[in-house]
Specification:
Layout: E1 27-32, E2 38-42, E3 55-59, E4 61-63, E5 67-72, E6 77-85, E7 90-97, E8 106-109, E9 113-121, E10 124-129, H1 135-142, H2 157-162, E11 170-173, H3 185-193, E12 197-203, E13 226-230, H4 232-244, E14 248-251, H5 253-261, E15 271-275, E16 290-294, H6 301-310, H7 312-324, E17 335-339
Parallel strand pairs: 1-17, 3-12, 3-14, 4-11, 14-16
Antiparallel strand pairs: 1-2, 5-6, 5-8, 6-7, 7-10, 8-9, 9-10, 12-13, 13-15, 16-17
Length: 342
């Protein structure tokens, strides 16, 4: 398939720059992938579309304050975006500067953090943080929240609260699993009271999630790699739900990618590792029957994923409807609940 098949017109005014007044105050567009039938709702109605015994799988990754600014030894400005923390003192990062730093070159970040450039690995740089304090602690103290590139304002205290799920637990992401941003504590409690089960996976979202596909043939696209973990308890809950005839809903494309990565052999198994799974139309889903997700960028791998899940034609019609009905798009935008096409 061609990348142009996943393009659509999106007015800039529909790109949400700020979160809704309350987490569950967003809208919800339901799509039946098999029939293409659409229905407009409010997100707070979500429990009505689930039944006792159904299972929701959330991504419990926590967004870290991954952006640091500083200078090179030459005095030139540099901006560092941590992509992955490897251990307490080394990380892979995107580095923006007028001239790319060389191996062995020192950096001073936030006016106080001493960093050495160890190596370059494709588009990323291997950095060593020389301070005794672990990287995650340094980022808490000196870093800033890395908002998506389509959000025009600098991160503020509201973003620090709302660009993080209420159940975020495992630090490591540089972008939020945005479908989960709609849930507040009261909604989670209501779901449990209704007998809907909840499980967790971890997938640390990387900067590649915002990159459009730039090749004409989508099969030529190189997917970014992300770290995931699927625990034994989650596997057991999924298998039990399916044996009962209940549906498994992935809350977000990241949760879905983690689950499908853990089922690449054909059988869902607990474990962790890197995944560069690229889900496009024709993919045979092994785990998830339903997907809760936000509205995605044109020509993006995430739009290709939901087109695989619901059918390209159904998704094209849904997105056209969403634009005409003034739904809010992207990270701070509205949500979709999609029933799998087949």
């Amino acid at each position: 398939m061609r990348t142009e098949d996943f393009d659509f017109y999106l007015p800039n005014a529909l790109i949400a720059q700020f979160p809704a007044s309350q987490r569950n105050a967003s809208r919800l567009l339901r799509l039946d992938g098999a029939s293409g039938v659409l229905a407009d709702h409010q997100f707070r109605e979500l429990p009505e579309f689930l039944k006792a015994g159904d299972l929701l799988v959330f991504n419990d990754t926590r967004v870290i304050k991954a952006r640091l600014v500083g200078v090179k030894a030459s005095g030139g400005k540099v901006e560092v975006l941590i992509e992955r923390v490897l251990d307490e003192h080394t990380a892979l990062a995107h580095v923006r500067a007028s001239k790319a730093p060389k191996s062995g070159q020192p950096l001073i970040l936030a006016g106080t953090i001493n960093v050495s450039v160890l190596d370059r690995r494709d588009d990323l740089f291997l950095l060593r943080f020389e301070d005794e304090m672990p990287i995650l602690e340094l980022l808490k103290q000196y870093g800033t929240l890395p908002l998506p590139p389509y959000i025009s304002h600098a991160a503020n205290p509201l973003d620090e609260e709302r660009y993080q799920t209420v159940y975020a637990k495992t630090p490591g992401a540089i972008a939020a699993p945005t479908a989960g941003l709609h849930f507040d504590v009261a909604m989670l409690a209501l779901l449990k009271d209704k007998g809907i089960e909840i499980a967790y996976v971890t997938l640390h979202v990387g900067a590649g999630t915002f990159q459009p596909v730039r090749v004409e043939d989508i099969n030529q696209h190189k997917m970014h790699s992300e770290l995931y973990f699927v625990p034994e308890q989650t596997v057991a809950l999924i298998k039990a739900a399916q044996q009962r005839g209940n549906k498994v809903t992935a809350v977000g494309t990241t949760a879905l990618r983690a689950l499908e990565s853990a089922a690449r052999t054909g059988e869902l198994s607990a474990g962790s590792g890197d995944t560069d799974i690229f889900i496009t139309p024709g993919y045979q889903f092994k785990v998830v029957e339903r997907l809760l997700t936000n509205f995605h960028l044109p020509k993006s791998t995430l739009l290709m994923l939901i087109s695989a899940f619901a059918g390209l034609e159904s998704v094209q019609q849904a997105y056209q409807h969403a634009v005409e009905a003034d739904y809010r798009f992207f990270s701070y935008g509205d949500a979709m609940l999609i029933e799998r096409a087949g």
